Inverse folding.
């Protein structure tokens, strides 16, 4: 029931309280005008609320069941993700350059070490040859010298016996001089000759002792041999240490090469990222986020539609150019909840569609 | 800036509500002064006014329960006033008049359909009692209800006293479960701080007692209520309470004065009922704002805050719901609100079972559906109420004509 403002059945007491007729008429006109305006506004507002709620419910329902929508995304080179991506890319590239320098340096070092090792090995071989040759020589000359030493010792014994006679001759000379049988000069000359004989004997004994040493060296492992062997051992130790260093360096080189390969692969993958394309591509690129639920609609070459009111009066605005498999997480353009999905590159004939809230892949969402 | 302001207002409204519930609980447990001093020895003459429109047999049941009141039979009368029902309500009233002869029952009929407020005023013309009790014709009353109401008038300054409205059909369906908890929380907690300051802002029209001289003073204003010439027939209970306070009297709800109403079981009926109530709240808000200085100086701050913040909260709540729907549609359906509502349901169902056995809930967790109702209520009812001030019907009863007409007259 909607009572009239001029109800003829109005109670008497209310009627009695009415103001004068002219004032009443003016007031009733004001009331009538106000009421009419109020009712018009009410109808407009309430229908607007009703339409708004129905539209809201429809949009919610539509996006809950639709499986072909995608949300255009405009990447800016200065946004956080792009900057982060480019920073990582630059760091990766720098790392590759550093590794390359390391590899070259390691290769040079390895070559030098190889050369050095070869020279050491040659030296080792020569040393071994020298040791063996000396050993063979010693084995040959040692017995000969031992025989000669025996001969020498026999000679010395004979000389010693002769020196006994020389001492008798010396006494004879001294007695002859004392007797005046010979002059002092003759005596001195003769005595000098005798002294020379003793000196020669002493030298002979020294030579014998030295010969014994020589024989000892040749027939046993002496200090000289040990020195040679020590040098050989040092040499071989150097070679072994060099081998270890070479092995480590080679492994490091291999690891650096693998690291470089990995970085190359990572950069190659990164180059497939929309952020890389956006930062390095020539001209404007248009991307869109596709939730996993709608992934089936995202195929290369699939048509893209842009619609008025996000769902009706759609027109084709381009095609899907490329699909990036890297996961993206964005807020649902309608529900505002977080959604996981992937990114596509769009080839847009109508660039303004990149600013639409949603576009549709494959087909028009409502067939018109 | 604007959203922050809205959030602040909403937060303030919620804060005041939460504080009122918490303070209500504390006062209920610890503050004796929150309860009125009753004097059962004072037994004034009482007229029970029963405005009726299209209630069918229910009005007979209401009269029956009132007639069984333990108030002295020579001290009260029933004045049943039919507002030109199109069903057999009037016949049921006459039948009650014939059947319950222990008390005087006067049955009258308006000359034309004029709405509940004017029907109450028309019934008042036939009364000469000291205390007037206006009741709803679809309620059932406890035998002590009249005695409990009149006993409260012993406190000086009391102008109007209300009763506690319970739910007679708590387990009909989800809607009745929700309403049972809401009714219980409102009467047993929310109204307690208002009771403490004797400044209840709205006494339910289901059971509303008022001093005769006060009602006579307010009656012309009540009759003259209009909205740009359109008579206002709804929300007379809120209006009478408001006027009582503005005239310097105090108001109180006596939770021992019991009555039970059958709450709506259909969404459409509930929607219409809530629409009428929201409309009354908003009407009251505009009236308050129009004369805010008078309110600030005359009324208790608790009353002013309630009169201003309740409708403001509803309006801001609407904006917030729209904001959430647009910015974060899933937020209302997350687990947190549901857990909170289920927790409230568990607490209140325990309290109801312990303190109000008649309303014991079999499936209290159905209260979780209140989330959906609160969103619907915020979204639709507030704007609809704002733009239907020119509506003046009896609300849901007009639409029930066909159903009630088909019932038999004979009980």
């Amino acid at each position: 029931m909607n009572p009239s403002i001029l109800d003829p059945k109005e109670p008497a007491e209310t009627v009695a309280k009415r103001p004068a007729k002219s004032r009443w008429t003016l007031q009733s006109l004001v009331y009538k005008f106000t009421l009419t305006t109020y009712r018009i506004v009410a109808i407009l507002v309430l229908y607007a609320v009703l339409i708004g709620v129905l539209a809201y419910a429809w949009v919610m329902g539509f996006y809950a069941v639709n499986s072909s929508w995608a949300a255009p995304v405009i990447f800016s080179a200065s946004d956080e993700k792009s900057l982060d991506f480019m920073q990582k890319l630059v760091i990766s590239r720098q790392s590759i350059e550093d590794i390359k320098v390391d590899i070259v340096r390691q290769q040079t070092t390895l070559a030098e070490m190889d050369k050095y090792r070869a020279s050491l090995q040659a030296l080792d071989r020569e040393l071994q040859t020298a040791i063996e040759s000396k050993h063979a020589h010693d084995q040959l000359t040692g017995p000969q010298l031992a025989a000669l030493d025996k001969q020498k010792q026999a000679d010395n014994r004979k000389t010693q016996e002769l020196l006994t006679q020389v001492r008798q001759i010396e006494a004879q000379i001294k007695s002859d001089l004392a007797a005046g049988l010979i002059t002092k000069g003759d005596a001195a000359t003769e005595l000098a000759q005798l002294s020379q004989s003793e000196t020669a004997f002493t030298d002979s004994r020294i030579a014998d002792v030295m010969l014994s040493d020589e024989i000892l060296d040749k027939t046993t492992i002496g200090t000289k041999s040990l020195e040679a062997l020590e040098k050989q051992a040092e040499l071989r130790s150097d070679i072994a240490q060099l081998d270890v260093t070479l092995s480590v360096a080679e492994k490091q080189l291999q690891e650096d090469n693998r690291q470089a390969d990995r970085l190359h692969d990572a950069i190659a993958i990164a180059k497939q990222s929309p952020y890389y394309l956006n930062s390095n591509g020539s001209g404007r690129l248009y991307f869109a986020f596709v939730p996993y639920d709608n992934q089936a609609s995202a195929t290369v070459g699939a048509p893209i539609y842009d619609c008025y009111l996000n769902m009706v009066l759609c027109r084709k605005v381009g095609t899907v150019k490329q699909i990036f498999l890297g996961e993206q997480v964005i807020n649902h353009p309608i529900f505002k909840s977080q959604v996981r999905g992937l990114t596509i590159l769009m080839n847009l004939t109508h660039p303004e569609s990149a600013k639409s809230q949603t576009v549709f892949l494959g087909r028009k969402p409502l067939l018109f | 800036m604007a959203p922050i302001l809205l959030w602040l207002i909403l937060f303030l409204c919620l804060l005041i509500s939460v504080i009122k519930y918490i303070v209500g609980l504390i006062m209920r447990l610890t503050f004796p002064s929150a309860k009125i001093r009753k004097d059962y020895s004072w037994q004034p003459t009482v007229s029970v006014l029963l405005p009726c429109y299209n209630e069918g047999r229910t009005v007979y049941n209401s009269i029956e329960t009132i007639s069984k009141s333990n108030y002295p039979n020579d001290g009260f009368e029933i004045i049943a006033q039919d507002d030109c029902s199109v069903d057999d309500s009037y016949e049921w009233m006459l039948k009650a008049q014939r059947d319950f002869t222990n008390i005087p029952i006067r049955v009258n009929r308006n000359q034309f359909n004029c709405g509940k407020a004017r029907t109450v005023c028309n019934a008042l013309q036939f009364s000469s009692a000291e205390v007037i009790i206006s009741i709803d014709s679809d309620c059932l009353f406890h035998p002590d209800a009249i005695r409990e109401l009149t006993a409260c008038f012993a406190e000086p300054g009391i102008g109007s006293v209300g009763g506690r409205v319970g739910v007679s059909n708590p387990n009909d369906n989800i809607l009745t479960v929700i309403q049972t908890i809401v009714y219980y929380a409102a009467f047993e907690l929310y109204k307690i701080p208002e009771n403490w300051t004797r400044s209840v802002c709205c006494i339910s029209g289901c059971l509303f007692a008022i001093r005769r001289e006060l009602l006579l003073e307010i009656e012309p204003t009540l009759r003259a209520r209009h909205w740009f010439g359109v008579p206002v027939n709804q929300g007379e209970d809120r209006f009478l309470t408001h006027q009582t306070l503005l005239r310097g009297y105090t108001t109180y709800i006596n939770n021992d004065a019991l009555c039970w109403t059958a709450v709506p079981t259909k969404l459409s009926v509930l929607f219409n009922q809530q629409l009428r109530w929201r409309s009354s709240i908003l009407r009251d808000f505009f009236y308050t704002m129009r004369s805010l200085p008078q309110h600030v100086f005359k009324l208790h701050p608790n009353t002013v805050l309630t009169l201003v913040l309740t409708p403001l909260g509803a309006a801001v709540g609407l904006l917030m719901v729209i904001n959430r729907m647009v910015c974060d549609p899933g937020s209302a359906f997350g687990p947190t609100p549901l857990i909170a509502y289920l927790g409230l349901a568990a607490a209140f169902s325990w309290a109801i079972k312990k303190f109000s056995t008649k309303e014991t809930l079999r499936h209290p967790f159905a209260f979780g559906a209140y989330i959906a109702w609160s969103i619907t209520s915020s979204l639709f009812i507030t704007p609809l109420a704002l733009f239907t001030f020119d509506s003046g019907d009896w609300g849901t009863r007009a639409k029930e004509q066909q159903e009630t007409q088909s019932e038999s007259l004979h009980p």
Chain A has a mean pLDDT of 84. The radius of gyration of chain A is 59 Å. The interface with chain B takes residues 1-3, 5-7, 9-11, 13-14, 17, 27-28, 30-32, 34-35, 38-39, 41-42, 45-46, 49, 53, 56, 60, 334-337 of chain A (CB under 8 Å). The CA atoms of residues 106 and 253 of chain A lie 7 Å apart.
